[in-house]
Amino acid sequence: MRLHRLDITAFGPFGGSLTVDFDELSAAGLFLLHGPTGAGKTSILDAVCYALYGAVPGARQSGQGMALRSDHAAPTTRTGVTLELTVAGRRLEVTRQPPWQRPKKRGTGTTLDKAQTWLRAYDPASRSWKNLSRSHQEIGEEITQLLGMSREQFCQVVLLPQGDFARFLRADAEARGRLLGRLFDTRRFADMEKHLAERRRATESRVRDGDAELLADAHRMQQAAGGAMEPADLVPGEPGLAESVLSAAAVARSTAREQLTVAHCRLAAAESAQAAADRSLDDVRERDRLQRRFAEARQRAARLAERAGARQEAQSRLDRSRKAETVAPALELRESADAEHRRAADAEARTRTLLPPVLRDAGAAGLAAAARRATEELGGLESARRAERRLTELIEERAGLDRQERADDDVLDESEAWLTRWEETRTGLQARIESAQEAAARAGELAVQRDTAHKRLTAARLRDQLAEDTEDAAEQARAARERALEAKQHWLDLKEQRLAGIAAELAAGLTDGDPCAVCGATEHPAPARKVAGHVDREAEERALAAHQGAEEHRADEEGRLGAVREALAAAGAEAGDTPTAHLTREVEELERRYAQARDAASVLHSVREQLRQAEHEHERRVAAQREAAVRTAARAGQRERLDHEQAALEKELTQARGDADSVAARAAQLERRAAQFTDAADAARIADGTAQRLKEADGRLADAAFRAGFATPRAAAEALIDAAAHRELQDRLEAWRQEEAAVRAVLAEPGTAAAAQQPPADLTAAQRTAEDADRRTREAASARDAAARRCAELDRLSARATASVRRLAPLREEYDRVARLAGLTAGTSADNERRMRLESYVLAARLEQVAAAATARLHRMSSGRYTLVHSDDRTGRGRSGLGLHVVDAWTGRERDTATLSGGETFFASLALALGLADVVTDEAGGVRLDTLFIDEGFGSLDDQTLDEVLDVLDSLRERDRSVGIVSHVADLRRRIHAQLEVVKGRSGSTLRQHGVT
């Protein structure tokens, strides 16, 4: 990486725009950056770091964003940094502008502009810069990838901070490890340590979970085995847990099988005793049943003897009922006739209450005559009904005429009001049409003006663009002319040099005996010799070709410049001298006026349509007004005819209604009266008939009762019972007969009589004996089932525990392996004698490389006295691996770096910084670092040591490096000729370059 140019604007203490030409400063290999304290020497390095990474070094992190802006800058000047550099064979230009509060373009106050970044690359083929990106993220990733180092690494490797390396030199192992970890990015090794630790915890947790599950199975086996299994006094994760659980499970299974055999024997004995008890119980139950049966038969016989009188009475009642059944038909006939007569008498009484008082006592013939008279009068009302219906129709027609009259009045009033406003409406619409037509004409004129203005604006913009292109083309033509002149001068110089050495070129072709082409001599005693830097024909021809090519390029550029100028003249002739901004405002004003005119003209069609619709409405309103007047005249004659007909109908109906409200009411009155008379006559005839049939039924009933042997019909009726009572008496008598036969059969049974002669059966004692035997059998069966379940459960849990032990075996092996690796990488394992973590081990290797690289320079700076060595000894109770000692060749002893003096500490830390820069560069992929900066610390050196340090720094030029020393030591200004001075002032700092050509 080589820096070429740095442009700074309003950055840090620099209020204006400044440029640092690193190419001129680097030409001497070693240059000095000096100035008074606070002038801004370190700000130059901050600008380089900010241009590359968008941030300043870590110790000055508070100066980010808007705080980077110079307090001396003008309000309208934006802060920016541009760095031109070559890295990985590519020439790049990085520009960064932090966010800033700029003044508003309109009004007062400020507004925030976001940060901006540009990345450009130089294309040698086209000799121009090409834009690559404007994305902060993309540019940051591209720079980091090309440099191969992060911002922290860059600040440690390129911007060597001596204070940091002095602290690094004296730091303890932990602090030194943190710095080396940032520089060499050993996070992957720390991640590996963390990964192994997490994996150890995970596998340990899985092993503990498996052991906990195994212990849970052991506790379940202990519960299933009762007291036959001893509990395991182990916790999850302890060794020997699996063997202990499996051994205890085997003992529990053996004990459970012995208990199962004993339970089987006890169950067989209990079942035999239960069978004997059940047979004895069955015998006692049978004897008890027969004894109870004999006793119950004796009790039933006694009850039959007690109910003998009731039996005789029931038999007598059943006999009387059978005699009364011969009188039953006559009784039913008489009851039917009596009920029919009562219903007919009630109906006659009800119909007579509805009759007029004069006809309530009339007979059936008189009521029939009254019904015929009412029917005849009802037939004479049919003509009055038709008249009444016609009168209703007349009233409806009259109401319809009234509705039509009101509707026509509304039409006339509405039409009159609308026609009154007609002239005003028509005049307004015509005025709007004329206005829209004028707007349409105006829009056409403005369209022509607008097109012309657009053409002038386009030409003006082209004119402005061509003016810029003309300047660029003129610059390109000037550069082409200069290159052509340089190429011509180079060709002439080479030609002159060749002519000066042409004798040597001719002498090269001389051969003894051959004549010289110039003098003709055949002897050549002292031919001219070619000197260093001799120009031959090929070099001259190449210079001539370069000169001709440059001339052709100059002609092309001048031709392009002429074409651009001609286009600019044409655009200027069309656009004139009017500024583009003025033409833009004219176009905007014409666009606004054109839009207004077009909007005003757009209503022309709609207004014409409104006028057409209004005229059509006017015609419709006038026609409706005439039609309403004609209908009004026709209604007058029709209303007079309806009034005459209505008067005649009302006179006819008054006579027909009588005292009723209407003809229909009078007809309904007559219909009801005729129906009442008819119903009353029918009811009287029915009542007379039922009375005669009742009298005949009484006679037949008396005759039937006498023949059946009853004194009166009432006695026959009382002896008669219904069918249910008759069946009940028969069932009771039959039941008594069956009960008597059953009792005699039971008392005659031999077994029953024999059981009655034996002592009473003790059923309670026999049942108690059988229940005890059954209980003992159930207890033995339960014990047998429990023992069988215990064996099955222990077998299941043992198989499950065995499977768990097999499943946990690979996991235990993995845990042991991971635990050993995690302890080894974490430095806690007994195998790690130095307690060195993996990351520390890697950093120790890097530190050993750094110490070797630093020793090469420290040996020269200290005149061969000091050597830096890496130490992996432990310090106190800490971990080893990152120790750094210095070996003193004068004493031959190795001692701590903290014992060095101030000057010795400086050049030792400088050597360490340079060595670290070489190692980090190699670690970053071998990116070449052609520009380095060393910040402060030279004031602590004596003259001799300073000379030796400067010799070491000057030797860096052997690798084509340039080194910038940042210091305010006055003696360095005398020793280093190439200088960049930072001058401090009230209006901000400025820069001066000295000792450069």
Radius of gyration: 69 Å
Distinct helical segment count: 26
What does the largest sheet look like? Answer: 6 strands, antiparallel
List segments where confidence is low: pLDDT < 50 over at least 5 consecutive residues: none
Structural class label: alpha+beta
State the helicity in percent bands: 55-70%
Sheet-strand content, in percent, reads 5-15%
Strand segment tally? 17
What value does the average pLDDT take?
Answer: 77
Q: Spatial order of the strands in the main sheet? A: 2-1-4-5-8-9
Globally, the shape reads flat
Q: Gap between N and C termini, in Å? A: 23 Å
Give an account of the 3D structure.
Helix 6 (173-184) crosses helix 23 (838-861) and helix 13 (422-500) runs antiparallel to helix 17. The protein has a 6-stranded antiparallel β-sheet. A 6-stranded mixed β-sheet has the order 10-14-15-3-16-17, sandwiched between helices. By secondary structure, it is an alpha+beta fold. Helix content is 68%, strand content 10%. 23% of the residues are buried. The protein starts with a strand and ends with a strand. The model has no long low-confidence stretch (mean pLDDT 77).
